[in-house]
Amino acid sequence: xxxxxxxxxxxxxxxxxxxxxxxxxxxxxxxxxxxxxxxxxxxxxxxxxxxxxxxxxxxxxxxxxxxxxxxxxxxxxxxxxxxxxxxxxxxxxxxxxxxxxxxxxxxxxxxxxxxxxxxxxxxxxxxxxxxxxxxxxxxxxxxxxxxxxxxxxxxxxxxxxxxxxxxxxxx
Length: 171
Known about the structure:
49% strand
């Protein structure tokens, strides 16, 4: 993975599989951006750290280490999924969806994964760390949601309802 990451630069379009204890597995496909400290990002998610010099055989090369939540890069899916555009109001916890998002400075990107609901509010829906819907309504950055499969009708790992974050978890 480090070798593949060493060939990536700002402007490349990539797909990255992430795994989070809170959000489960989710795939982000978008344009790579560099942070102000030269970390690679896709859709606002960290992809890889700053380049570091490492010895490879007799040579020194610059390599990047993947972020701790990166599980596959590049990430490819060779199966077939049937997608149907769906309003956010018809999405619920456990559905497998592909969501197009536009957010500055990252541009347009697609997040594919299992939707999670909040423990105290089934309307507060997220895909990975991106809000789909909350008490204020639909996220205006969401361009389109496509349902790939309803909850229980797909093989993606099950994701638990998101518990509230406690103040002591933030310190």
